[in-house]
Structures are given as C-alpha cells and as structure tokens.
Amino acid sequence: MAIPQVARLITAIGAAGALVFTSATGASASAVGSAPVRTFEYSVGGVTMKVPTGCMFTHIIRGSALRITYQNAGVDCAFVGALSSGFCNWRIDFTYADTGNRTYRTSRGRTHDECKIDPMRSNSPQTLPRYGKTCAHLHVNGVRRVSQCHHVTK
Q: Which residue range(s) make up the domain with 73?
C-alpha cells in the first residue's frame, strides 16, 4: 500500500472513530456528521465500476444562527473502499430547506469527469433567510448516492 493510501486510511479511521453518525443533527453553531456510502455499481464508457463498503460521506458546517461561515462535504474511504477506483463523473450539491422541508436554494457543484477516491467540495458562506436544514448530496454518474443533513435551529 502506498504512503498516501496509508495516510488516507489512518485519517478515515480516525475521523470515523471521532464522529457520531446520524442522518440529521442540530446545528445552532457548528456540526459534523457522516453517512455511509452504500455499495453500488455504475457504468463509465462501457466499464462497470464498483464502489465497495468502507466509504463515508462527511458534511461539516460552521457558523451561528442563520449565518454559515464554512461548509464542506467529501468522501473518506478506508479498508477495501480505499483501494477502489473511486467515484467517476461526480458532483456535490448543497441544498437549503425550510422547517417544512421545502428546498428553497440549491448550490449545484460542477460535474468532475475524472475518477477520484476522495471527492470534496467547499461552499461559499451563506446567510439563510429562515431556519430549517442544510444538506450535502453526492451524485455519481448522474445519480444521487448519499446525503447528509444538519438542522439549522435557533
């Protein structure tokens, strides 16, 4: 195993051990949450790609009240997942919804044609017009594969 893969594996294991895994967390100030990327297959140029178990999609926000000063989402893979070819034709979107779960804003990421084991995207600071939730969504080859959300509350 190459040195970068070992470092990525150690980082992913440490991050996984330090996180509480939930689908949505309260975020009146800052929050970190992860969701497992389920195993799936997809086709790129006639070649079947398989994403094995061992990858987590992590979404981080910092700020207070309706002001998000930092937002980032990305994938970390460990074990067998770290040895895969990665995610091809990927993009990460951020969505913002009100307390009635109605999405009022989407920050669509660009689609990256290359295959990457650790796709990541940061978003610009946001001042939200209302409380609700913010979510990050990983799309691979045009299909949403995993989401992770945080509630933005008073």
A: 3-152
